[in-house]
Amino acid sequence: MMDWGFTIPKEYVNEFLFNIPLLEGTSRELILNWEKKRYTAKISHVNRSNFTNVYQIRWDTNRDFLNKLRKTFIQSYVILKSQKELFDSNNSLKKHFRTNLEGGQQEVAIFCPKNINELEVKVFIKIENEWNTLFERLASENVFGWLFEKKDKEYLIQKSTNWINVNDFNHHKNAMNVIYYLANTEQKMLYIGKADDLGKRVKPGRKHQEMPGDWNIFKYDVIRPEFSNLIKRIEDHTIRTVASVLKNNKDYSSLGIDTYTIVNTLWKKI
Q1: pTM value?
Q2: Residue 268's CB: how many other CB atoms inside 10 A?
Q3: For a Cys staple, 184 with which of 24, 146, 189, 246, CB 3.0–4.6 Å?
Q4: Which residues 6+ apart lie within 8 Å of 63 measured at CB?
């Protein structure tokens, strides 16, 4: 729950589906309603080879909800992540990690299906202590995300694509937490942006801020979920780095290579 969501127990699947089938390998959007604020998530029918299929509620791409969950149940987050860290360090021969929270440490959230597209989230048990305020601030700054990040993962980026023809955009529109690059090879223009959901941010054939609608190729980098709170900083850094090489429209110190011009204007020159 503190990383991506949860698997629905078999006995409750129909209550979450409202008896409307969800095909294997597909998902549909949900709204998580928590304290009058609405967050997007998905219910997925996960087709697992060599294992029984499962249904999952997933919010790994919604950093606002993930941050609220971690901060609300900050004691659980710190203890569970600490236990997992010890498990990975000392019990590598075991196949599965199981949590071990004692009764007085257990916090409880309720996820109640209201209709086919909405779950209500409630706090049932929350434990307060003198460390909560500090831990909540550390969680907001993603300090724990850095501490608990596995050492064998690549830094920041989990996937980087090749350049792709705009005609294939629909195959990539569901990419989440991305830094994207739009190029117009006729006018030699480049635009760099960020998106929580690529298909909602970018529309082929439409003007995209300073980029005319006839851009014809694109690529993107997928940011790991645990670093998604840094995506604006990553975008700014990427734009400045490229602008220091290519010709740009902001008189930013650059080599001024003018084969392409970076056309972004809404960025800081620090």
Answers
A1: 0.52
A2: 9
A3: 189
A4: 177, 196, 225, 228, 229
Count of alpha carbons within 13 Å of 80, Cβ hemisphere only?
16
Report the C-alpha dihedral over residues 190, 193, 197, 198, rounded to 10 degrees. Answer: 0
pLDDT band at 68, cuts 50/70/90? confident
- Rounded-to-integer distance, Cα 238 and Cα 231, Å: 10
Cβ within 8 Å of residue 146, ≥6 positions away: none
- Helices 132-140 + 63-72 axis angle, to 10: 170
Q: What is the per-residue pLDDT across 225-243, written as a single tens digit (0 to 9) for each?
A: 777 778 888 999 999 999 9
Burial-class residue 200 by CB neighbours within 10 Å (0-12, 13-18, 19+): exposed
Length, in residues, of the chain: 270
Domain boundaries along the sequence of the chain: 5-147, 157-262
